[in-house]
Every structure is written in C-alpha cells, then in structure tokens.
DNA sequence: ATAAATTCTTGACGAAGTTAATTAAATCTC
DNA sequence: GAGATTTAATTAACTTCGTCAAGAATTTAT
C-alpha cells in the first residue's frame, strides 16, 4: 500500500512542480527565464508562482540583481525562501544514527548523532524518534519560531534493498532486516511524514537537486568505502532496476580470475577496492597480519612502494568500473565520493588514468568529479529525499 | 534544425498515442481493458479511438473472441489494421543496402538487396532511392492498391554516431562519413519522410515495440558479430548518452591486462569476442595462419578442444559484459543477438554460465534471451523506427 | 420477464495551459 | 525631458484534454 506525502507546498499541477523546482535548483530566476527554460508560457509561470509566493515558499527579489543592461522593464527574480520549512534527514548505519536538520535547499542547519546499541526494529525506531525529538527541540535556525512547527517531513536513508513507494526495507544485510515497514513505524513514532530511500540513491538525489547533478539529465554517483555502490540518473529519473538491483558497480567484474568476492563472483571491483579488500591485500604484501588501515595509509603516503601499489591497484579497479559504467550509459557527469575521505590522494591519479584509457571515444568527455564525502552528507541525502517528497509523487 | 515526422495517423494528444500504442503492441484489447492498463478513463479511450477507426488504423472486432464468461455486455476488442499503411526500412552496411517493406506491426512483407560499390554520399543516396523505388513498385501486399500511395515513411539504420532528431550521421567509421545530413537528402531523393537511427538502437526499438521488449519498461539488446554493441531502454526510453556514446558493451573492460583493443583500451569484450578477435585467437592456438572462420567453427563443432575453448572464452567475455550491464542497470530482460547466427551453439552455454556466476543477487532473475538474428532483421529495425515516428515525437 | 453485470457512449464540467492584449518599468533617441 | 522602444509581468478569453456521472446496449442469471 503506497503511502503518500503531505502536500503542504501548494503543488497542484505539473507546471507548478516544474516552476518550483526550477527556482529551487537554478537559484533566483525571473519568470520569463523560468518560462524560457521550461518551455512554459510566461503566463503559466505567473499563475504557478503565485500560490508559492502566498504560502511563503518563494519571494520576489527587488530587481537589483540585474545583469543584462539594455532597455526594457527589469526582471523581478523569483527566489526560494529556504527557511520557510525545515526537513529532517537521518542515515542509519550499523553503529549509529546520524541526523540533520536542513532548510529547503537541503543545507544542513543542525546535526546530531546517536549510538545504536541494537538492531532490533523497536529499538531503532525509538532511538530515531528520540534523535528527531532532540533535533527539533528549540527554535528555528532563523529564530522566528518553534522548530517543531516548521518541520513536517523526515527522510531516512538505509543501505540495502529499499522500496521507497511503500516505505518498506525489503532487505538490509547490515541491519539484518527483512520486510520492515519502517516508514509507517516512523510516521507514528515521530509524527512526521517519512520517506524511506536507499542510502546511495538518497545521496544521488541530493546531488541531482542540489549538487553536481544540477542541470544534468543523466549522471552517476559512485561511493567508495566499506562497500562500493552507485546510483544512476537517466533522463532525470533514478534507475531502480526491475528486480530491485541497479547501480551495483561494486560487483562489476573487472579482473578476470581476480580475487573472490563475497557475492560469489570473481574480480569484482569491491573485491579489490573496498576498504576491507585493500587492508587484506596490504597485509599480504607486507606480511604483517595485524597491519592497521591507518598505518598502511601513513606508510603509503610516506613512499612505501608495495603499499602504494595496493592503493593504485584499487584505483585501477575503480577506474575500470567507471569505464564500464560510462561506456554503457554515457552520463554527462560522474561523481566519485565515499567515506574513505582521508585516502583519496592515494587513489585519484590512478582512477583518472585508467578511466582515460578505457573510456570509449567521446565518453571520455564525461566530467569526472572525485571528491571526499563528509559523513553528514549521507544524512543530508536523506533530507534531500524528504525535500523531494514535497514535489515528486511517490510513484517515482 | 530538427525535422518533424508527418502526422498522418490522427495522433493529437498524449492519450491518443497511448491508446494507439497499447492496441498496437498488446494485440486486440477492449476499450475498458485499454483504460485499465493505461490508467485513462474508458470515456477517454472511446474518444481517442474514434479518429483512428475513422482513419482506418484501428477496427472493432466482432465480439466473438470473448473469453471471460459471466454476465454483462461482451467487449468489442480494438485491433490494429496492419495493412492500413506500409513502411520502408533500409539498413546501410559497408557492402550493401538491405531494404524491406513492412506493415504497421513491422512485419516484413517484401524485401530487396542492393550492392554498394562506393561510399560516396551521392552514390549511396541514389542507390537507396533506387532500392526504395523498386520496393514500392507494384501493388500493396493486401492487393488493394498501389504500394507507393500507402507508404509515407522511411526508416534508415546506420552504424555509428547518429543524431536522430536532426537526421544527421555525425560519424560513421564504416562508411567514412562525418556530419552527413542523410535524412534531408533522402527526403528529397525518395519523397518519403525519413527517420535516421543508429542500427543497434533501431533494433532495440523493434524489440521494444514488437519483440521481446514488449511490456518491459527496461531492457537491453546486445548484438554480437563484427562489432559488439548494445542498446538500453530505461523507463521506456532509449538511452542515448550525453556525448552520443552509450551501450558500448563491446568496450567494457572485462579482462585486466587482456588483449589490446582498437579503441586503445585493453581486455575489452570486443577484443576477445568479436568475429575478428575469435579468428585471430583461433589461428594462434592452432598455429595455422590461414585458418578460416568456417573451418574453425566446423572443427570446434567436431570436438577440437583448443578451438572449443576459444569460443568458450568469447562466451565468457560476453557473459562478463552482460553481468556488468545487468548489475548496473537491472533491466527486466536482455536479448543477445547478432549476425554470427551459425555459431551460437558454441557460445551460449558459457555465456549463461558466466552470467549466472557474476550477476549480483536478484539481478540474475533478469530474463536472458539468446537468439540468432536473421540479417533482414536489421532492416526491420529501421522500419520499426519509421513506424515509431508516427506516434513518438522527434525529441526522443 | 426481470434483475444484475459489464461495456460503451454521451454531454456537461473542470483543470491547466495558451494566445493576445494590457499594464508596468526601465532605457534609448532626439 | 517627452516620447519611442524594449522587455517583464499580468490579465482575460479561449482551447484542449480528460474526468465524471448518467444512460444506452447487450449479455447472463433467476
């Protein structure tokens, strides 16, 4: 049974959503500009924008920001009022809950953590409700009122197979959950309307609306860390996969006959470039069975050649995976990110080099952004999904 | 400057297109059934169907075909009248032109070939116009009139980078063409409205509308032969790639450190499993520098183990490429096809085996159809694109 | 025969967006 | 600096498309 999001923002028609999202993602724009970019008539933009202005979601800027000189009446750019409404985003990991409060632009305004002592559903729901309560106590970031009265939507990100439309966690190996109707439970426990999404997909949404993906009709987000995953946006829509599987770049086979992967395959990207795989290999080449990741990183940075090669090998595998992805999809941009922030300097060069060799023809023109990922970003992704729930139907 | 298709079929609204394509692809269906499947009201279906019936594109069947018993007025199924209009499809290869005439269902009703003695644009255009003239001479397959008066659309398939919207061949290595406005030239030379498409994408369209792809919102078509290519349909739309490159499964790297590919990469699927790569490898393992493909196939079938392994190796590489594709996309179905019809028995088992091992989780549930490809099928794909041009805007 | 079920048709209505005309606010020209 | 010109925003009439609700058509069930 699909659950539906609240429609507090006055979105009643496709055009209304188009206009609102254009202003949201492309900053202050005049009505004619919105019309030009969306193909709507300027009359339609005027009509669609009015309810948003009345409800306080949009405002009309003084015509100061004019750039184009020339004659004619100056434009009155429409701008988002980011403090009109706040959103809560929570990422559930195996060890803790990371929560943030964001504004309409998904900019983080407050954050809080919470350790997780058990994976029991009831326990997690209670802990999450506590965290939300903590985040929403006190006044709004803009100081004009009570935060709880200005936040209605909660986004939750979990790794695994998640059915966003029904709000059910189908399978999460990390938490050991199967078919948990988490959104429903959290609706009740928090009083907020909850949207549930896979963690990587949530991050992709954040990029699509508020990050590197803005303006690109197709792009990919790749996360590297404990696991290696990705999410793909094609024609503006997230690819979900007919059987719930998509974006498994971690299990693209890139080294025929390479190391065995826990998925049953051989030579998967994840079997070479995940944090665990790197550590295993580092211990092999050094012969030190108790080598820690931190030490391996330090020594590689210090110039230890065998260890540097382990990291380069991981970068190579990632580059091959990226080439596979880009040759198949041809996205406009690819963002590579992940929790192993500290070690990117050891990867990046090799990723780029391998990608450049293996990308086919003009696919190599695809913009490759390699960027560390602050941990809170995961929670921000969850909040972005909550923001998105305002103006995108659940069927997506 | 995008060219626009003729709208001879009375398609004036999204609903009209929806109704028509539903009947076209899902056989005779009653109006209520169409309504149920599309989410439209049955009133809308009635209204949308009328102009098509009046124009002779659809007809109402007698209520004989009833299956459901029970009470109530029997349904009057709507059916396509395939002979209402004919379409011409032509595939341009390096050596010849293959042309077909099809009906509305893209069923081939006549065909003709034409050798190509030069790749000069003018020559190809003239030869193609001749071929079309030949195909359209005489009476219609249903014997009710002059074929030329009942065919208005031409579809042309070429390998390479093709911009369908503008009708321009951006780059075709095979023909040595760059930026040839072929559709425009053929509009003039044939008097038909021409739609140009990449050959593999055209085949994918044929599958999507009239073949294995019917009813699947996402699927992939992979062709194996001289080259190895693929086309992907996601959310019902063909993936085109931001830079004109997509579906290059032939250049997915699957064997780290494997044979060099003409694309500059290493271990690409095409460097292992293309017809040429197989022959090269077969000559290596036998030590016979003049071994022919036919002989290699015969001896492999006869049980020659080293040669069988060459073919199995190719199947393995294809299976790895398929796994990459399926793990990233999660299509509902994959069709593997190609011109090397005769040798499928040597591939298939290994393709399936490798795919099964490397497909991640439930992605393995994806339906894998491996099927020979009659050569005319390429031309049929071109015709399917022409049919599609009736009811899909050029922007796709 | 009458009732019930199911399909199809019809016409009134409503939502959403377009075009064209109008008003508004600036610069440009002389 | 008055009027022309240019561009932006608004308004109002109109168009288009699809829904809804009522009813006609055609069957089976009792």
What does this structure look like?
- The structure is a homodimer of 396-residue chains.
- Chain A has 396 residues and is α/β, with parallel strands linked by helices.
- Helices cover 38% and strands 20% of the residues of chain A.
- Chain A has 12 helices and 15 strands.
- In chain A, the strands form 4 sheets. In chain A, strands 5-4-3-6-10 form a 5-stranded mixed β-sheet. Chain A has a 5-stranded mixed β-sheet with strand order 13-12-11-14-15, with helices on both faces.
- The longest helix of chain A has 25 residues, at 305-329.
- The mean pLDDT of chain A is 91.
- Chains A and B meet through β12 and α10 of A and β12 and α10 of B.
- The structure holds a DNA duplex (30 and 30 nucleotides).
List keywords for this structure.
homodimer; 396 residues; alpha/beta; five-stranded mixed β-sheet; 15 strands; globular; DNA-binding
Q: Distance N terminus to C terminus of chain A?
A: 15 Å
Largest protein-protein interface: A-B, 51 and 51 residues
In percent, how much strand structure appears in the residues of chain A?
15-25%
Provide the residue-averaged pLDDT of chain A.
91
- How much helicity do the residues of chain A have? 25-40%
Record the strand order, biggest sheet of chain A. 5-4-3-6-10
Please tell me how large the radius of gyration of chain A is.
Answer: 23 Å
Contiguous helical run count of chain A: 12
Helix-strand pattern of chain A:
HHHEEEEEHEEEEHEHEEEHHHHEHEH
Question: Which overall shape of chain A is indicated by the principal axes computed on the Cα atoms?
Answer: globular
Largest sheet of chain A: 5 strands, mixed
Unreliable runs of chain A, pLDDT <50, ≥5 residues? none
**What assembly state would you assign to the polypeptide chains in this entry?**
homodimer
Tell how many strands the DSSP assignment of chain A holds: 15
Helix/strand class of chain A: alpha/beta
